[in-house]
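Troubleshooting log. The previous run stalled partway through. Resubmitting the same two chains, unchanged.
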Amino acid sequence: MDEGLKSELQKQGVFTTTLEEVYNWGRKNSVWPLQFGLACCAIEMIATSMARYDLARFGAEVFRPSPRQADLMIVAGTVTKKMAPQVVRLYNQMPEPKYVIAMGACAISGGPFKQGYNVLKGIDRYIPVDVHIPGCPPRPEALLHAFMTLQQKISDQQLTGANRPPHLNADAPSEFPVPRFGEHDLEPPNNPAVWQAPAVLRA
Amino acid sequence: MPGDYDPYLFVFVMALAAIAFAATPLVLAWLWAKKFSPQKPGHDKNATYECGLESKGDAWIQFKAEYYLYAIIFLIFDVETVFLLPFAVAFTGLGAGAFISLMVFLFLLVAGLAWAWMKGVLTWK
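Second attempt completed without errors. Output:
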């Protein structure tokens, strides 16, 4: 709908909307996270959902204990290589549409344990991450900001067209390969469809 | 006559409304899935949810039900305690009839325990 006409109508007290807007408005205000904490960031996540920071303002206070009912996975903490297959499997078990917030330095990059042999250097190597939050740990305000960023992202998604989100696209994958334990490392070390190692330019 | 209608007509109308109330969201969701949001079943998504781990083995297993005997015998002591406390508190002022009936009650429970003991239920196998 034409924005100018919409604005004119609104001045006359006529509210107009589109199916897409109503759909996204409903979705973005009922993002139910998966009850899933991996390390110390989970404490900040809990604090965010409690009364002081009050995640309920964003309609996201309903932490679901089963991926079947969850829309959002907050990867809150260090993802060890032992845990990575479970994280990917839980993501696979969530119904569409699903979103991922990688919370904290560990979840986005390995953080202080980046040099460790047992820590995954960012969950975005296996699953598509929508919002990255830096910090060790990020304060609840940072998680709230990530929520608002995600809400903005959801409200910008289109119902049709080539740019439509993966859950509306029958060809986009819903599941991602679960890594296996190899001889030395997880196999594959990353999902090439989701993440590729940055090219190192040597002079 | 204005009131000349079949009383079951309203039941019928209400039944239709109830069915429509239940069916409309389902139909709308189905239409939405057809038009916009395709279903994406998959191996992991359809698998049994077990906290992210792969489920192992069969859910249809047998396990020993012996513990339930202990649970039942526990009831003897449990119920006995509930009745023994008021019995002990009111013991001095108790009439002969009340005393005898409570002793009979105790005897029944103790007899049950003795029977279980004789059967060898108290020995864990």
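Takeaways: The interface with chain B takes residues 66-68, 85-87, 89-90, 92-97, 159-160, 167-170, 174-175, 178 of chain A (CB under 8 Å). Residues 35 and 65 of chain A are 5 Å apart (CA to CA).
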